[in-house]
Design goal:
Order of helices and strands: HHHHHHHHHHHH
Number of helices: 12
Structural class: mainly alpha
Radius of gyration: 19 Å
Helix content: over 70%
Shape: globular
Strand content: under 5%
């Protein structure tokens, strides 16, 4: 676990100081391979398109784990985690919106916050930007981070390839992939909710989470992650209100506060991992 923490910190640092290296996160080879496989029966692309690369990663991960006292395995883990992080840089996307010279440019820059495969226009409104920021944080940071901690490099690759497959055009295969991707997102999303409650207004977050589930009456264990939008908006509203000098309905104010809360969540996650390492639980 200590090695994983160091790898996470290193990847987060490199992603922040060298954002241009994000171009290395190229999945064209994987998309070409899926095209070569052709239109398979439902489940085959998920099993082969995602499962086979992950299996190869598992074998490489196991083979490198003891070489040079684990140093080669550590380098491999850092490389895979960096490759699966993002792929776009969330900090830079938000910064581009803040620095856009006019409304048209801001609207265009805001489209970078959409999930892969989502071609609908993201409105330049406070609640939409907040929801998109938290959804992007889940898919770009917290989802891959969670599965990296649980399964190592193969977990990060599993998460990223599942997300990419789920973003494909609507077919029976992509519908199955979306369910699988939502399954992989379920635990990270709930841990984000817990971290947000600790990093922001606990009452606002808990009330929004409870009210969302009461309104939809689907149970707490279903794969509907809409509660993340609800708690994100509630926490930003409470956070901006506590400031007293800003308007939570202002798109830029809400966007910047959402980014602040996402960073706080990341700190909470890293602190928890560090406490687990120090406590010797893993």
């Amino acid at each position: 676990m200590a090695i994983k923490l160091v790898a996470i910190l290193l990847v987060a640092f490199v992603s922040h100081v060298l954002p241009d290296l994000a171009r290395l996160r190229d999945y064209s080879w994987w998309r070409a391979w899926l095209r070569w496989l052709g239109p398979p029966a439902p489940g085959v692309a998920l099993a082969i398109g995602v499962g086979l690369p992950v299996l190869v990663c598992v074998l490489v991960q196991a083979g490198l784990s003891t070489l040079w006292f684990g140093l080669i395995g550590f380098v491999f883990a850092v490389a895979v985690l960096y490759y699966c992080w993002g792929p776009r840089d969330l900090e830079r996307d938000v910064e581009a919106i803040d620095k856009a010279p006019d409304g048209t440019a801001r609207l265009a820059a805001a489209q970078a916050l959409r999930r892969d495969g989502d071609n609908s226009e993201l409105p330049f409104a406070a609640e939409n930007l907040v929801a998109a920021t938290f959804a992007a944080a889940l898919s770009r940071w917290f989802g891959v981070l969670f599965w990296f901690v649980v399964l190592g490099p193969c977990g990060a690759l599993l998460y990223r390839l599942a997300q990419l497959l789920a973003a494909a055009p609507a077919t029976d295969e992509s519908a199955l992939a979306r369910k699988f991707a939502a399954l992989l997102d379920w635990l990270p999303a709930h841990l984000m909710a817990l971290a947000l409650a600790l990093a922001s207004n606990f009452d606002a977050v808990f009330s929004a989470w409870r009210d969302y589930h009461r309104a939809h009456a689907q149970g707490y264990a279903n794969l509907d992650l809409g509660f993340l939008d609800a708690i994100a908006r509630a926490s930003v509203t409470a956070d901006v209100a506590a400031d007293g000098n800003a308007d939570a309905h202002s798109p830029l104010v809400a966007l910047d506060d959402a980014m602040v809360l996402v960073r706080r969540e990341l700190v909470v996650w890293l602190t928890l991992i560090a406490l687990i390492v120090l406590g010797g639980f893993f």
